[in-house]
Amino acid sequence: MLYCCTLRRGELLSLSSFYTNQYDAALFGAAQETAALAEFAQYLAAERPRWHSIQFRYLNAERTFFKAMQQQLRRHGFFVYDFFQYENWYAPVAGLSFAKYWDARNSRLRNTVTRRGKKAAKEGSVTISLVTERGDALEAAIRDYQRVYSSSWKNAEPYPEFMPNLIRACADRGVLRLGQLHFNGEPAASQIWIVSNGTAMIYKLAYDERFKDYSVGSLVSLKLFERVLDVDYVTELDYGVGSEPYKRDWMTAVREIRGVEALNLRTLRGIAAALSELLKRPLRRARDLRRNSKQTAPRPPEAAADGS
Is residue 245 part of a domain? Predict the structure, then answer.
């Protein structure tokens, strides 16, 4: 089923936010999806009062829903266009062991992580743990995650209870992989991965900037990559949304996360918005060309794999 909500009069918005990585229809099988989307588009077009605009965000441009929904909305009188939102770095890894995966990474990355890992072990006590289930260990890990996050470079969470509750929900469903590094007993790095349907999504990561020189984030990543490749046997690694350069060290491919807007040509507001979009198209194409040229440009050297 596809869930939507409306926040502004006459506009229907997909149920997504800045916590979303990808948005899709929970349908399986091409025939079922085609029939369901056709009925859904017909329903939207028939609603009264009419929608001026229908928006979907965080769509994987490679999934069938991305094009199928656009086709169905066009058939029912909407002016439909899509637009770039984010890059999504990923790596197909079916049948790949951790040893082979790590050996395929560039020498600069491997040397940096190895050198800094040795430095950390020499200068203090390093403990890396992995939590997957409910219990006291998980609650302690959540507290440590929040402590690390508050000491990192990241902005404060706008909804402080979202991540703790998401972590617990993932643990209940058996899809949580929460990795942490403690340095001399202090939480130094924390990462939340979600493993589902053969994909390991690297959802949230943070490290305490006091321990930046030890590449603590990369050391946690190694532990988690080993787990998902040699125990969970995932077929894809997914680094979520964003174009941070360090993601290229760990991933091998990139795809686009795009949005779709459908403007109703049966309403004056919809017609006006469609004309405005047509006038903006040359500028949009120019932005797409610049972005594509940057994707193929040589990559500048990075100091470490976790942005440190």
Answer: no
The answer to whether the CB of 141 falls within 8 A of the CB of 187 is: no
3-class secondary structure, 83: strand
How many contiguous H segments (helices) and E segments (strands) does the chain have? Answer: 9, 10
307 in a domain, yes or no? no
Q: Is the dihedral of CA 73, 74, 79, 83 positive or negative?
A: positive
Tell me the one-letter amino acid at 3.
Y
Cα→Cα distances 223→1, 178, 193, 230, 308, Å: 36, 10, 12, 11, 18
| Contact of 155 with 97, CB cutoff 8 Å | no
Q: Which domain holds residue 24?
A: 4-86+254-296
- Write down the pTM of the prediction: 0.89
CATH number, position 132? 3.40.630.30
Query: Quick check: is 308 in a domain?
Result: no
What are residue 259's DSSP bridge partners?
83
- Three-state secondary-structure class, residue 156: coil
Residue 143: is its pLDDT beyond 60? yes
Model pLDDT for residues 69-100, shown as the tens digit of each residue? 999 999 999 999 999 999 999 999 999 999 99
